[in-house]
Amino acid sequence: MKKIEILGMGCPRCNLLASRAKEAVEDSGVEAELVKVQDIEAIAKHGVLATPALVVNGVVKAAGKVPKVEEIKEWIK
After folding, report:
1. In order of start, what are the domains of the chain with their CATH numbers?
2. Of the residues 1, 4, 15, 21, which has the fewest C-beta atoms closer than 10 A?
3. Catalytic residue among 14, 24, 25, 37, which?
4. Is the pTM of the predicted complex or chain greater than 0.90?
5. DSSP letter for each residue of 4-62
């Protein structure tokens, strides 16, 4: 199972990223755990300076932007 983390403080862009990540998981049929991370120290441990950010299995895939659903699908395959 993949672990997908949405890093951000709950702003509208963070919520949009969470929504797109959920859609990508549902569309691709990949078994994944979606986790929202709002703790600033936990976000900093990933080396992320700009949110929202998307982390797949511990690897930062995007930071400071909201990728399209299709991009997220590619990263979670």
Report:
1. 2-76 (3.40.30.10)
2. 1
3. 14
4. yes
5. EEEESSS-HHHHHHHHHHHHHHHHHT--EEEEEE--HHHHHHTT--SSSEEEETTEEEE
